[in-house]
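We modelled each protein-ligand pair independently. The example shown here corresponds to the flavin-adenine dinucleotide entry; the chain sequence is given first, followed by the ligand as SMILES.
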Amino acid sequence: MKIIVCIKQVPETQDVRLDPVTHTLKREGIKSIINPFDLYALEEGLRVKESQGGTVTVLTMGPPQAEDALREALGFGADGAVLLSDRAFAGADTWATALTLAGAIKKLGGADLIFTGKQAIDGDTAQVGPMLAAIMNISFASWARKVSFNAAGKVEVERLLDHGYDAVEVELPALISVVKEINEPRLPSFKAKLRAKKEPIPVWGLADLGLNPEEVGLAGSFTQVVKVFPPPARGTSETWEGSPSDLAARLWQRLREMSKAAV
Ligand SMILES: Cc1cc2nc3c(=O)[nH]c(=O)nc-3n(C[C@H](O)[C@H](O)[C@H](O)COP(=O)(O)OP(=O)(O)OC[C@H]3O[C@@H](n4cnc5c(N)ncnc54)[C@H](O)[C@@H]3O)c2cc1C
């Protein structure tokens, strides 16, 4: 089973800053971590490898410092890693990111199973997984809380829904995005961390992926983040005390007054 796990290096802080000129996220010098959902994706990839056999390769698109995230992932037991880094990739929106990742997976000779996290905690769009599956024209199952293999060699996925979950059968090759409920990530092993320090990590750029400059990065992006700002605080807040029925009556009264005032 050829398993690929896409991980994103994200700022450890929610206080993301944009470069006022390029409108791209300032990443240099900001403490970065592996996107939390991707640690669950990596753990699930390693568990599938242990049950089905095969290899786990971790893939990330990012600035040169993203190599740290890959070395950390190797420390958990991934077999190999590839860094996609090129100035041409900077400022990529979700489509350009997915296209670049698809180019790398093609260069790796494809995959049977691709795992991503539900979403990244900085961009928060949850778009790269489904877009990557669409570009590669493979099956996709989102928000997986359980992944298993049936006798027909198909993958059964329990997907977390707002009110419960559903179960789907997925044909391989497939891409699965995971939620935190799916597993408990293991601790990195000392042996694997030692190997991770020395493991060669290829760095692929635009030329290596055979993509056009206008397909990737800011040039290949349909969207651009022009401003990131906290939502303005709205009006004053009040704290009410009382029994539930008193509070409900009071709230109902207030809503009626407000709706009258609005007309
Ligand atoms: C505040 C902010 C808002 C943004 N809003 C938008 C927007 O509305 N539309 C838009 O197109 N772009 C947006 N972007 C840009 C977007 O963050 C980048 O395109 C990013 O590379 C991917 O999108 P995401 O962070 O939302 O990831 P998501 O789609 O949430 O990530 C889902 C999963 O895809 C994988 N993945 C994501 N990025 C990478 C990567 N670089 N390398 C490897 N695997 C990866 C991971 O497994 C991750 O868990 C925004 C960026 C910021 C900082």
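Residues 2-209 form a domain with the Rossmann fold fold (CATH 3.40.50.620).
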